[in-house]
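pinned: reference chain
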Amino acid sequence: MGTLYLVRHGQASFGADNYDQLSPLGHEQGVRLGRYWARIGFVPDAVLTGTLQRQRQTWAAIREGLGETAPATPAVECDCLNEYDSEAVIRAIYREPLPPPDTPELYRAHFHRLRDGLTQWMAGTVSPEGMPSYNDFAKGVATVLAHVREHHLGQRVLVVSSGGPIATAVGQVLGTSPETTINLNMRIRNSAVSQTEFNARRHSLITFNTLPHLGEPGDEGLLTYT
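pinned: its structure tokens
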């Protein structure tokens, strides 16, 4: 048996011109996770990340928190762990953009549109510009799960990715409907850890969307979703 740890990136720069950048709070979330793992003696045998800046920066923050216990082996990057383009998903069905989501109402409207776009993308009824089909996106995630089973049996593997790939991976492990996969996607918190155990044939979900590193009094301000 092996163990796979799926970690969503820390808080990015939602609403800014460049979303693909950790906020200072997002960096702190990653460092906290690394410190927690150092405290309990956890060190991954292998690390995989996407190629997006916020994913790379999250792994760098985790390494910072791990300190001297951080693994010497560099992370393997795979673009099949990259997030979908949420703006392209929304534009596929809503041509008129919303103003920047700087109010609760606009924030809710943004995610309502995203949910609609994801539903249609997953059903194959729209093709967001510059993006693969959802079937190809899901095949990329399945390839990562198969790679972990084939090459890392008996090891502890860390994957640093985003909400879409992680929800898709969990959905594949559980056999969920597209609607449930979208619901999972919308609930994954920044720097949250989901865990599977795996053998050569399959993964089994052990935990989902946990924040063991942010459980102290006063940590409530570190709980974020974007």
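why pinned: The chain has two domains: 2-83+133-219, 85-130. The longest helix spans residues 104-123.
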